[in-house]
Amino acid sequence: MNDNYLSGEIIKYAMKVHTALGPGLLESVYQSCLFYELTKAGFQVKKEEPLPLIYEEMRLECAYRIDLFVENQIIVEIKSLENIMPVHQKQLLTYLRLSKRKIGLLINFNVEHLKDGIKRVINSQ
Question: Three-class SS of residue 44?
């Protein structure tokens, strides 16, 4: 599936959730509602997907968990914060690098207009 199309669909459903619920709730609420909307629309979505980390000869089976992993292509990191900090984008970029994925969406639902809370992150490696 085309990355741009899939990103657009994820954003469309995130906006639907944000319009219905508004800002100020816990990340887990937005995650569950976006998971529901995406699966209802027919997308393959994994929630809290554990991914391993290999460091030299050591393997950690669950080094981190991806909030939403859509169509085995796009990582969605969900936040509900006053402000997104540069470290949040770097965190998503690290997830992309470690999972060998190209595109991630950082979505902060704690904003008045969701378009102001969406960052697309590209792994160029």
Answer: coil
Whether 63 and 52 have beta carbons less than 8 Å apart is answered as yes
Round to whole Å and give the CA distance between 77 and 105: 6
Residue pointed to by tokens 């085995």: 72
In this structure, what DSSP letter does residue 40 have? H
Q: 78-125 pLDDT, tens per residue?
A: 999 999 999 999 999 999 998 899 999 999 999 999 999 999 999 997
- What is the Cα–Cα distance from 19 to 89, expressed in whole angstroms? 24
- Check: CB of residue 46 under 8 Å from CB of residue 66: yes
Element (H, E) at 64: strand 58-70
Nearest to 3 by CA among 104, 119, 118, 80: 104
d(CA 17, CA 37): 8
Return d(Cα 76, Cα 69) in angstroms, integer. Answer: 6
Do residues 117 and 110 lie in contact, with contact meaning Cβ atoms separated by under 8 Å?
yes
Q: Give the residue among 124, 97, 81 at the shortest CA–CA distance from 106.
A: 81
pTM: 0.93
